[in-house]
Amino acid sequence: MVRTLVVRGLLLGLLAGLIAGGFAFAFGEPRVDSAIALEEAHVAHDAHGHDRGEEELVGRPGQKAGLFLATGLYGLAVGGIFALAYAGLRGRVGPRSEGGLALAAAGTAFVAVILVPFVKYPANPPAVGDPETINSRTVLYVVMVLVGLAAAVIAVATARRVTAGPWARWTAAALAFLVPVTAAWTLLPTVDEVPEGFPATLLWQFRLASLGTQLVFWTAFGVLFGWVSDRAAGRARAVPATAATPI
Predict the structure, then answer these.
(1) pLDDT of residue 56
(2) pTM recorded for the entire structure
(3) Cα distances (angstroms) measured from residue 79 to each of 9, 11, 14, 82, 194
(4) What number of other Cβ atoms are within 10 A of residue 126's Cβ?
(5) pLDDT band of 234, cuts 50, 70, 90
(6) Are the C-beta atoms of 76 and 17 separated by less than 8 Å?
(7) Contact 64/198 with Cβ under 8 angstroms?
(8) Crossing angle (nearest 10°) for helices 2-23 and 60-89
C-alpha cells in the first residue's frame, strides 16, 4: 500500500508541479524580467558604459524553459515525501476520509513549510540580496521551516489530547502552533537587504507571485491526491462485495 501511495504522490506531485510552473511563468516571470532589467540598468550606469564582465551561462529563454523542469522536480520530491507522511497519518489523525485527510495534510504543509517562513523571510527577486550573505540567509530560512514543522507536530499532538469538544480542541491546537512560531518570528534576526530605490510594487508583486505559485501547487496537489485516493478507496470497498457474490 505504501508503494502505491508513493507512486501516486510522485505522479500527482509532478502534475501539480507543472501546473504551478504555468502559474509562475504567467505571473512570476514578468516580475523577474523587470527586476533583471533594473539590475542591468544599474550595472550599466555604474560601469559608465564599459564591459559588464561575465555573461549569463543560461539566457532568459533557457531559464524560462527550465522553470517547468524545476517545478516538476520539486513536485516529484514533495509528492514522494508527502505520500510517506500521508501513509503514516492514515487512520491515526485528521479526517477519516481519504480526500479529507489529503486536503488537511496539504493545507497544513503549506502553512508550516511555506507560509510560516514566508512571513519572516519572503522571497526576493534578482537584484535584491547580498550574495555574500546567501549562506546565512539559507540557514535562517531552513530554521524557520523546521520551526513550522515542529509547531505543526505540536499542534496535532495537542489536539489529540484535548477531549473537551471541537472548539476547545481547535483553539488549543492553534495556540500550540502559534506560540513557537511567534517566538521564532520575534527572536530570529531580520534580513532586510532591499537596495534603496528598488520599486516596492515590483518587490511585492514578485513575492506574492512566489507565494501564489506555492499556493497553486499545494492546492492542486491536495485536490488531486485526495480525489484519486477517494476513488481508489471506493474501488477497494467494492471489490470484497463483488468477490463475495456467488457464481
Answers:
(1) 56
(2) 0.86
(3) 4, 8, 7, 5, 33
(4) 16
(5) confident
(6) yes
(7) no
(8) 150
Yes or no: say if 16 and 224 are a contact pair by the CB < 8 Å rule: yes
* CB contact at 8 A, 145 and 113: yes
Alpha-carbon distance of 115 to 149, in angstroms, equals 11
Phi, psi (rounded to 5 degrees) for 52 = -75, -15
Q: What is d(CA 208, CA 214) in angstroms, rounded to the nearest whole number?
A: 10
Identify the residue whose cell numbers are 474501488.
235
Of the chain, the end-to-end C-alpha distance in Å amounts to 29
Place of cell 496537489: 221
C-alpha cell at 41: 540598468
Q: 6: Cβ–Cβ under 8 A, 6 or more apart, which residues?
A: 80, 83, 84, 87
DSSP track, 104-144: HHHHHHIIIIIIHHHHHS----TT-S-GGGHHHHHHHHHHH
> d(Cα 213, Cα 27) in Å, to the nearest integer?
9
What's the pLDDT tens digit per position in 151-180?
999 999 998 888 888 889 899 999 999 999
Asked if 193 and 15 touch (Cβ cutoff 8 Å), the reply is no
Q: Which of 130, 134, 132, 128 is nearest to 35 (CA)?
A: 128
